[in-house]
Amino acid sequence: MKIESIRESLGEALLKAEKISGRNTTLPVLSGLYLSAHKNTLSIKATNLDLGISINLPVKVLEPGNVVVPAHIISSFISSLSQERIVSLNTKDQTLEVKTLKTKTNIKTLPSEEFPLIPEIGDNEEFSLPARDLVFGIRSVIYASAVGSVKPELSSISISSTGDDLVFAATDSFRLAEKRIKIKKPPYFKQILVPQKNAAEIIRIFDQSNEEIKIAIEEHQAAFRSSNVYLTSRIIEGVFPNYKQIIPKKTTSSATILKQDLITSLKTSAIFSDSFNQLTIKLMPKAKRFEIETKNNTAGENINSVEAALDGEDISINVNHRFLADCFQSIATDSVSLEFSGQAKPIMVKGVGDTSFLYLVMPMNRS
Length: 367
Prior knowledge:
The protein has 367 residues and is α+β, with helices and mostly antiparallel strands.
């Protein structure tokens, strides 16, 4: 293989692929990137057996061929050549020669015949949506999924379709986030569960893209395809919790608050929260008071009053302040509503005037 490439575009593609490469001691080739040159295109592949990526990059191909090189080494080295514009790659025996006007480097290669295939999923029933919608949908809920849960379905992002909406949801059983994105054509699948770590990579790979992303599903695998990126992810086998049944049907109290006022108050209150991140929300509609109270045996205590439009019955409820604060990144409106249905029911958080996002926070039992 012998190619010439623009260093900046090559470096960006290598960096995207490198983060997906594996760290498998029993299969060292997974720590490499598979580079294949043909027809003025360089294909860069990486996989950790759970997630796979193939990035096509336009280059000048002088000799077709393929090679596997250690991902971290090639990516870091190309990124370090910030003053260079053109880079040439040339395979010689068991090494990859990297040349620029000012430097010449040889990188030891890995056995290319051992590199595993990335699953190819057909496009017979694929559907598409803008990359920004896919990223926004996942980003709106991913923080609510469990990290390292023994229940894989809680460490996943649910993607399903209902009517004209693509519904993204995540829960760790203590809180739940749901985001609805309008789509032109509903997908043929009912629901898929994407592992949380893989969902984070989907955000990273397509975050700056303005393209349409085509999505195709086969048994145990999902594929996400743009004009030059093909990403595959394992799908979790399991049943996502039927969260519809825990959404309160009616509310007994509510508060409408400026989002930034609530965020500021939560930051102040968090300073005095205990080891359980507990805070107490008190609604007193008749007294026209909305208070956030925190106590810490070491640091002290704090009571913060926030201006709010209140309705319904008085209520005092304990919640995890971090769980409550996490959702505001997903709310675009200036005001938020907090709806309460009793001491043992979850708090429902929404953006005022926005029906596309729903967040539930379970109360804490500790006094």
